[in-house]
């Protein structure tokens, strides 16, 4: 396969790696912290593993050098490559929230659920999550600490709402906060912030609580898995919260009208598309199509509808 790498140094011995989900560029990012104990955050999909390996090799990290692999949550665009990467780097410990740990050790149930959602597209988009030896997995709960060496730490903070097994990760040396999907999707080409509310775990109040927790950590920078670094921390977290409220209000109105999912999606699109440069008239259709694969309106609406029905 094509393993050309796109690596961007971000300062503080942090390197952004384009993990190229399904061949798309600029959609899924992993991060290498090249500390005394090198740490890979977000390995991406199973299909991304050869790209990530090539990037680590380019950065001087060999098979025996990687100390830790950390995932913010076990959705396949973030953690689908864990089993492959664990095989390539046999000394690396895998860190994940306790509610996701068993799925990395025994991924059959997770893969069955994913195939029900994606069908044949699963193989193209994500590939197969391979099991990781349970002895190599370290589960964290509300908080946890990953030793990066030299007194540097990566501290994990449970941040559910997008997923019950989601954690944010704070670098003690740089003040970088790896936000996974808990703060939504950042689109660097347009500076849009869009929500990520897929079923089955989305919950508005829990998600807003996680954003408040992120703010209380006073990070210097947000590092999005989708996609890249953002310096405007407070404004971006505020925008993330606002977008969640807007989408939930729109879906609630659709639900109150007893609309089927496709009609609800159309109504929500009509209400929200003008909020984002990526979906306004005259926007780049290829860019919009790329992010629709990752963060489709149908998935967001379905997740919010599921949450509203659960609460009802």
UniProtKB/TrEMBL annotation:
By its UniProt entry, which InterPro entries does this protein fall under? Answer: Metallo-B-lactamas (IPR001279), NDM-1-like (IPR050855), RibonucZ/Hydroxyglut_hydro (IPR036866), ST1585_MBL-fold (IPR037482)
Q: Which SMART domains match?
A: Lactamase_B
Regions that span the bilayer: none
What positions does the domain Metallo-beta-lactamase occupy?
27-226
> Under which name does UniProt file this protein?
Metallo-beta-lactamase domain-containing protein
């Amino acid at each position: 396969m094509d393993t050309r790498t796109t690596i961007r140094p971000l300062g503080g011995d942090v390197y952004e790696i384009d993990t190229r989900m399904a061949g798309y560029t600029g959609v899924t990012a992993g991060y290498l912290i090249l500390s005394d104990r090198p740490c890979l955050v977000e390995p991406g999909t199973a299909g991304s593993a050869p790209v990530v390996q090539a990037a680590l090799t380019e950065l001087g990290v060999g098979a025996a050098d990687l100390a830790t692999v950390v995932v913010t949550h076990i959705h396949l665009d973030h953690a689908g490559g864990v089993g492959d990467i664990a095989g390539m780097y046999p000394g690396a410990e895998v860190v994940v929230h306790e509610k996701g740990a068993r799925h990395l050790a025994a991924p059959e149930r997770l893969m069955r659920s994913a195939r029900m959602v994606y069908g044949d597209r699963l193989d193209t988009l994500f590939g197969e999550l391979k099991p990781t030896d349970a002895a190599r997995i370290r589960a964290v709960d509300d908080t946890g600490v990953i030793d990066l060496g030299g007194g540097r730490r990566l501290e994990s903070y449970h941040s559910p709402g997008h997923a019950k097994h989601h954690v944010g990760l704070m670098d003690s040396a740089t003040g970088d906060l790896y936000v996974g999907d808990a703060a939504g999707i950042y689109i660097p080409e347009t500076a849009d912030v869009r929500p990520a509310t897929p079923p089955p775990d989305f919950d508005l109040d829990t998600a807003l609580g996680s954003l408040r927790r992120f703010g209380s950590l006073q990070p210097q920078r947000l590092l999005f898995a989708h996609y890249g670094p953002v310096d405007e921390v407070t404004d971006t977290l505020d925008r993330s919260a606002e977008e969640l409220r807007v989408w939930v209000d729109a879906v609630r109105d659709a639900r109150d009208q007893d609309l089927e999912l496709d009609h609800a999606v159309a109504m929500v699109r009509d209400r929200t598309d003008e909020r984002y440069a990526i979906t306004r008239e005259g926007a780049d259709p290829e860019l919009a199509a790329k992010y629709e694969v990752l963060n489709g309106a149908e998935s967001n609406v379905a997740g919010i509808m599921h949450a509203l029905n659960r609460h009802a």
